[in-house]
Amino acid sequence: MRNLRKQIIIVFLFSIVLSQKDIYRSVEDVQEEWTGYTSFQKEEMISFCDFLFNEGYYERCLLTSFQIIYKFPNDPNISTIKYYIARSYEEMGNYDLAHSYYDQVKELEQAGSSIYKAVEYRKSYINLISGKADVLLENTNNTEDPYLMTFRGYAHMSKLEWEDARAAFISAQSGFGHPHYDDLMSPIYQAIENVHTVPRHNKYLVLFSGTLFPGGGQFMLREWDKGQGVLSSVGLMLLIGSWATVEQLIGKNRLLDNEGISIPIYKNYKQENLSPELTKSDKIPTHMTVSHSSIRYLISPLAIGAGIFLGSSWKSFKDTNIKNKKLVEYYIQDRMDKISPERFIDFPEPKLIIPRK
């Protein structure tokens, strides 16, 4: 009985040993298992990065993107990861870093590829919205790409170059060759046509208003602070000039009492029999009169006031053209905000996650 138990135990242990297999039987098995794990980890990180970008968490998207690049530096999707790093910086308004990473993507991609073209479109769009119209026009010179031509049209509009803008949009519309873009272009042409309807100031009427009363030109241009400043300055100079009129303060009579008690004490006199008498040429006149003049006190404030008055009138006349240009620029900016170039950003862009069909 005891031997039977031993045999059973031995058989049981032997069966357990036989049933056990090595989890990793070779180096290749270990490498394959680890590759599967890292591949799953990478997919999870890319999926998380895509989620963060789409939800607008750009800073966290950047952090995850940099972690992917650090852990998988040789991954074939590195250019797409860097593209979304640039996109995140673009959405955050850091256009310098966005340009930097877009350039890195271009170095990794072949010219003419879809991602290469998307980078060019994005860089042009950044230059447009950041006020670098001249850079955009220089970089896209002689292009025939409809998207780039569209951005060139907007750049010419921002520079108030209407004919060039119209020509660029017509060329872009021809390049697209689709009714959808015809509808997008229609309000742009209308905005260019309506430029002449923008209210402008008449510079001669502004000059007349400026000469009519201090600050009148500035008030016509609706520069209220400047007009009030001119009016206050000229009024202050007139007030100072009125203070210089002595008669209004102390009257014309300088000697209010008897002239005798107003005579200063002189050292050149002699006294005989209690009768003082001035010596030499210091003789007491029989009658004393006083004259005064305040003209020298009036010249400075009146001259300053007149200078401010005339100068402000001339300046308002010269500023009329600048003011009218700003009115047109405001109109164009308002139109561009309503018919934003962002409407034309429908070109193919790389995807972090390709949706399943």
How would you describe this protein?
68% of the residues lie in helices and 2% in strands. It is mainly α and 357 residues long. It has 16 helices and two strands. Among the domains are: 36-108, Alpha Horseshoe (Serine Threonine Protein Phosphatase 5, Tetratricopeptide repeat), CATH 1.25.40; 201-249 and 292-343. Strand 1 (269-272) and strand 2 form a beta hairpin. It has helices at residues 2-19, 27-54, 58-71, 78-91, 95-108, 114-129, 133-139, 146-158, 162-176, 179-193, 203-212, 216-220, 224-243, 247-250, 259-262, 295-338, and strands spanning 269-272, 275-278. It has a two-stranded antiparallel sheet.
Tally of individual helices: 16
- Percent in helix: 55-70%
What is the residue-mean pLDDT, rounded to a whole number? 78
- Structural class of the secondary structure composition? mainly alpha
Placed side by side, the strands forming the largest sheet appear as: 1-2
Give the N-to-C terminal Cα separation: 69 Å
How much of the sequence lies in strands comes to under 5%
Poorly predicted spans: 21-37, 247-257
CA-atom Rg in angstroms: 44 Å
Number of strands: 2
Question: What is the global morphology?
Answer: elongated
State the order of secondary-structure elements, H for helix, E for strand: HHHHHHHHHHHHHHHEEH
What characterizes the major β-sheet? 2 strands, antiparallel
